Amino acid sequence: MSHITTISVAGMTCGHCAASVTTELQQLDGVTDVHVNLDKGAVAIISAEPLDQEAITAAVEEAGYNIA
C-alpha cells in the first residue's frame, strides 16, 4: 500500500525549483514518486511507508526552500 504525503512549499516558481525539490525528496528512504504542482506550491510525495516529517523538512530545506 502506498502512502501519499502532501506538503506546501514556499518559493517554488519554475521547473528548476520543482526539479530541485523533487531530487532531494526522491533521496528519502521509501519514496517512490514525487509530484510538484507549481501553481499551488504543492508537493505530493508517494512512499511505501509513512515518512518522517523532519526528514521531509530537511530535504526541502536542502533544496533551498521552506515548507509553508
Please characterize this protein's 3D structure.
The chain has 68 residues and is of the alpha+beta class. The longest helix has 12 residues, at 15-26. A 4-stranded antiparallel β-sheet has the order 2-3-1-4. The protein is globular. 32% of the residues lie in helices and 34% in strands. The model has no long low-confidence stretch (mean pLDDT 96). The relative contact order is 0.32. The chain has helices spanning 15-26, 53-62; strands at residues 3-10, 31-37, 42-47, 66-67. The protein has 2 helices and 4 strands.
Secondary structure elements and their pairing?
Layout: E1 3-10, H1 15-26, E2 31-37, E3 42-47, H2 53-62, E4 66-67
Antiparallel strand pairs: 1-3, 1-4, 2-3
Summarize this structure briefly.
This protein has helices at residues 15-26, 53-62; strands spanning 3-10, 31-37, 42-47, 66-67. It has 68 residues and is of the alpha+beta class.
